[in-house]
Amino acid sequence: MSQSAPLVSIVIPAYNHGNYLAEAIRSVLAQDHAPLELIVLDDGSTDHTPEVLARMDGDFVRERHANMGQARTLEKGWAMAKGSILGYLSADDTLAPGAVSAAVAALQADPQAVATYCDYHLLDPQSRPVRQVKAPPYDYRAMFVDVVCPPGPGAFFRRDAYEATGPWNPALRQMPDYDFWLRLGLRGRFVHVERPLAGFRVHDHSQSFAPTTPQRAAEPVAIIESLLRTPGVAPDIVAQGAQALAHAHLISAQLHLRAGRWGAAARSVRAAWSQSWSRVLSVRALRLLSNALFNRAGHRLLWVLRSGLSARNP
Predict the structure, then answer these.
(1) In Å, how far are 96, 190, 198, 221, 270 from 244, measured between CA atoms?
(2) Which of 9, 16, 179, 192 is nearest to 89 (CA)?
(3) How confident is the model at residue 40 (pLDDT cuts 50, 70, 90)?
(4) Is residue 135 classed as helix, strand or coil in its secondary structure?
(5) 3-state secondary structure of 154
(6) Cβ distance 254 to 289 under 8 Å?
(7) What residues contact residue 235 under an 8 Å CB cut-off, 6+ apart?
(8) Shortest CA distance to 99 belongs to which of 200, 230, 237?
(9) Nearest CA-CA partner of 99 in 31, 43, 23
(10) Can you tell me the distance from the alpha carbon of 193 to that of 117, in angstroms, rounded to the nearest whole number?
(11) Which tens digits make up the pLDDT trace of 204-261?
(12) 295/303 Cα distance (integer angstroms)
């Protein structure tokens, strides 16, 4: 990279992911972009995360503080960061080689873009690829109406856009990233880097895979309602509010189903119907709800089968 290359700062918020943290750190330190700043913040972990951090080699900032949650930990890390381009990596995820360079190139090629995101691989608990996830093309209306979050691991954004948008909402524990990307999208477009440049780990304790509380399951609806109250949202987006709320209720139903709360799931489906019956009868809704019933079991079966084959063929 040239001497004028922008400083990129990546924050890893670590809480009880000692089994995966070293791999996440190594994946960042192995990036070919320079200059690069890595900040790893241990959010009061109670597992062996402190020991992992203590024995890691490499030039990066490491710090431990009392538990205050992912959102406040990221806010702290980005306040410490010096880069003009910011990113984060969950402590159980990874970046592929060249991920940072690709993001920087995409932002430099499109000065009006405020963020980049890439495709990624799902990883099992042993870091074996499960399948490739191709992120959808960027479309703010679809992100809002369909309650989808195109950015996953390997996303980066401009500091000035972040400062104008504000940090993650610490009141949200299930979907704070979706809320952030929705608000950031009001500042400008995102660029999709169509290459698998990150790994998203699926395991029983990952936030997107583990059963949720009723409060967390209510977040999709709260996020959409909050955006509809935001001043300056385009009228064509506001006009799709009922469709978005219907889908948000279906996401809540999915989360309730994963946790075995059948009554709460049924109430969420009824709330979705009251907003848009066509959404409830769509193929997308059927896939969403069936995913809640079978996806976790399917991943567990795959892990068991792979582990058995590995044991038989060491």
Answers:
(1) 33, 20, 29, 9, 15
(2) 9
(3) very high
(4) coil
(5) coil
(6) yes
(7) none
(8) 200
(9) 31
(10) 6
(11) 665 556 678 999 999 999 999 999 999 989 999 999 999 999 999 999 999 999 899 9
(12) 12
Residue type for position 194: E
Contact residues for 118 (Cβ-Cβ < 8 A; gap 6+): 99, 102, 103, 135, 152, 154, 155, 192, 193, 194, 195, 196, 197, 198
Instruction: Name the E strands within the chain.
Output: 8-14, 36-43, 61-65, 85-88, 94-95, 115-123, 129-133, 156-158, 190-201
Helix (H, G, I), strand (E, B) or coil at 75: helix
Token couple for 27: 């994946």
Q: Give the Cα separation of 303 and 203 in Å (integer).
A: 9
CA distances to 25, 210, 218, 295 from 147, rounded to whole Å, are 31, 19, 13, 19
Give the burial string for 182-221 (b: 16+ CB within 10 Å, else e): bbbbbebebbbbeebbbbbbbbeebeeeeebeeebbbbbb
CB 86 within 8 A of CB 161: no
Structure tokens at 7: 């400083």
| Span 142-201, pLDDT tens digits | 999 999 999 999 999 999 999 999 999 999 999 999 999 999 999 999 999 999 999 999
Contact by Cβ (8 Å): 172, 182: no
Encoded amino acid at 18, one letter: G
Question: What are the beta bridge partners of residue 121?
Answer: 132, 199
- Angle in degrees, 0-180, between the axes of helices 241-258 and 283-312, rounded to the nearest 10: 40
- Rounded Cα gap, residues 280 and 301, in angstroms: 29
State how far the Cα of 149 lies from the Cα of 246, in Å rounded to an integer: 16
